[in-house]
Amino acid sequence: MSHDISDNSPQAHGASxxxxxxxxxxxxxxxxxxxxxxxxxxxxxxxxKRAERQVSLLxxxxxxxxxxxxxxxxxxxxxxxxxxxxxxxxxxxxxxxxMTLGVALFCIGAGAVHWARTLxxxxxxxxERHPIEADDEVRADVIEQFKTGAAxxxxxxxxxxxxxxxxxMALVPLSGVVLLRxxxxxxxxxxxxxxxxxxxxxxxxxxxxxxxxxxxxxEDIVQGSLTFAKPEGLEEDAPDFQQQIAKDALMLVRIxxxxxxxxxxxxxxxxxILAYSKICTHVGCPISLYEQQTHHALCPCHQSxxxxxDGARVxxxxxxxxxxxxxxxxxxxxxxxATGDFDEPxxxxxxxxxx
Amino acid sequence: xxxxxxxxTGATTPSSTRAKPASKWEAAADWxxxxxxIYSLAKANLRKIFPDHWSFMLGEICLYTFIIIILxxxxxxxxxxxxxxxxxxxxxxxxxxxxxxxxAYASTMNISFEVRGxxxxxxxxxxxxIVFVAAxxxxxxxxxxxxxxxxxxxINWLFGAGLLFLGMFDGFMGYSLPDDLLSGTGIRFxxxxxxxxxxxxxxxxxxxxxxxxxGQDIVPRFFxxxxxxxxxxxxxxxxxxxxxVFYHKHTQFAGPGRKEENVVGMPLMPVYMAKAGGFFFLVFxxxxxVSAIATVNPIWSYGPYRPDQVSTDAQPDWYMGxxxxxxxxxxxxxxxxxxxxxxxxxxxxxxxxxPLVLAVIWLYPFLExxxxxxxxxxxxxxxxxxxxxxxxFGAAWISLYLVLLIGGGNDLIATHLHLSINSITYFVRVSxxxxxxxxxxxxxxxxxxxxxxxxxxxxxGRESGVIKRLPHGEFVEVHADLSQADKFTLTAHEQPQPxxxxxxxxxxxxxxKVGRLAKARAKLSEGFFGDSGQIAKPTAEEHAEITSGxxxx
Lengths: 355, 553
Fold this sequence. Notes:
The complex is a heterodimer. Chain A has helices at residues 10-14, 20-23, 40-43, 45-75, 92-118, 136-153, 159-171, 173-179, 241-248, 263-268; strands at 81-84, 88-91, 125-128, 205-209, 227-231, 250-254, 273-277, 289-291, 296-298, 305-307, 313-316, 325-326, 328-330, 336-338. Chain A is of the alpha+beta class. Chain B is globular and about 90 Å long. Chains A and B meet through helix 5, strand 3 and helix 9 of A and helix 5, helix 7, helix 8, strand 5 and helix 10 of B.
């Protein structure tokens, strides 16, 4: 495509409008920059004055809003709640500060943009681009300089020097890597056990109801309910409570004997009461939704669904294996107790997890 | 260096050869120039030309929200305590009175309920972060669909990609800091994801959390990463990004007088200073007003984090939604490898697909450059319709992103629209593979349709809406010829031709070896620029034939 008529200067192209260009030569040739059309504010001084007043008004509103911000900060108590339609009940201070700050900032912006659009020149100006690449002469010069520098350093010629430098530079970051070692302990067997592993048949650990903080009897667990429990001795004010509860949390359900589909799971329970880990085997969210008709437990984070009547088999969602189950029984007084740890690690699976 | 000429070097030697400054302002400028060399810098930039188009503001929104985030973030650090030490709440928010919580959560409550204006700054910080990532994504789409990533801007495209990636993670870490029930759930998810990494997963988890989840270390560590490490890298990338924008000069759309060799627009001083500077205040003002009327992340209603508690409708901030979708719709899948080791593919695959989803769109420019073999600089932005394959690819990518967002919010969609969560999940699983293909085909055909329409407009003029009755009774619609400027604009784009493989046998009749890569490239090139990839734009001959009477209404 030829660009013979593509002069950019506004004067040159001013006349060359429309189809004259098309008659001779290329019908799609570049007509060049269009002529500048004056705005009202360019030719009418009264319009310009009006624009000036509008811009100034915006700046004045901004100033008033800033004063309003400071006044709001002083006047409104932080706990005052007001009703503002359609927002509802909101903090008066937060609303007043936010709106005044918003107006103060917005009006500066609106004023500046209005100023630029009405009163500053809107002549379009072409500027030349230059290729990003250097020309051949510069390129040759730089390569020559680099070669000279490289030769003077002897980096390529003195191999011993070069290799030892590379070796030392490669080794020195290792110190930094070594320093990261104490970021945390090694995994060892930590993920393998929970707080229930202190329980033995001789010294069982009672299941403590999360809500009442008391041990439970079998008859406390009614059919259709979901009860959360923790091991006896784990108190909320313990320094490692958060770590412990992240593994020990239990959920108890009672399922009618006729509904139990998995014999092995039923044997781990007591009289239809089953104790499963509350921590999802997908990525560790606590499972908290229970559908009593179907015995399905649903994790609210990623919707893994487990059939608690069938050994907590995964029936939907991203979890990869069933919820671990804790073997429970009752002690002499009839309280629900555990006599050992889960038979597999709780929570998300990991590389070393036995399978 | 002084020369040994005989001129006297007495006390009267003037300090500078420059003419006496006309005003105090000039004197101050001279003083600064003598030390910083500002005149040479200003000569190149003070009247630098910026082309005008609404879509060029998208990048500005990113820059301004970044500044807002830094300003408000510094304020928040004055009050926030990045500590997981336990405390009992005694503040003015009655529902949590006497509840155990971490210092991090308690100090965020303090910012929200005791520090005057603290809540507003927290809200501005969070809203600005939400807008920041959204603006980066939309800005990236603008650059993608207009082909503004082509030479010489490929490296700047990657800088931008880095900023988006870091911005997403810094946002995630930011909303994890208050240690509320929602953010703790996000950190717990991260633990599960890290554990799924083969071989080193448990080690990474122990080193990151300083022991077993949740430990005491994750909030202070995230704090340092969130306020120092990532913003520091981002600031460096941002400066590099802007320097390159200045150095390359901005792209512009085709139009009369706009060529590859020039840039047409208005000067930095005063028009762009006023417009861009003003736009900063507009963005800041709008975000401040939004923060006054719309609550984001009300941590007081979530409560402090407990590993055995969770709320329903747990959602990450929107920009993490597509990764949430990946993790939700992936079916559970654990396999046993190497004698008893567990490979948790159900979590590990989404973890690996997550960066891949982003990498696909970031690497596309290099695929296109390889297919076209184009080594020239490009400064004229393409209209999306004139690059149908690229546009279709981008649209397909967006559809993938959106369908994953749906997957990430499947519980909300299920409860709000009364749909089965299982059906939504199955829909997303199928759509993940199918939808991008459908969208690709539709978008490409759509672009070709628009190209045909452009061609018709150039050759036949636009429909004027005027109906004329001819003497013999026929009704015709008068078509108005396009202006020269419009004709030029609609035909200014380049149409590359597909590359051709060399003949199978050379001139001596010997079979030529053509590599598989070369064949793939030729095939892709045919798809991009062959008959099915673009509509040949009108030629001067076609135009002459139509305008010379026949068919000219």
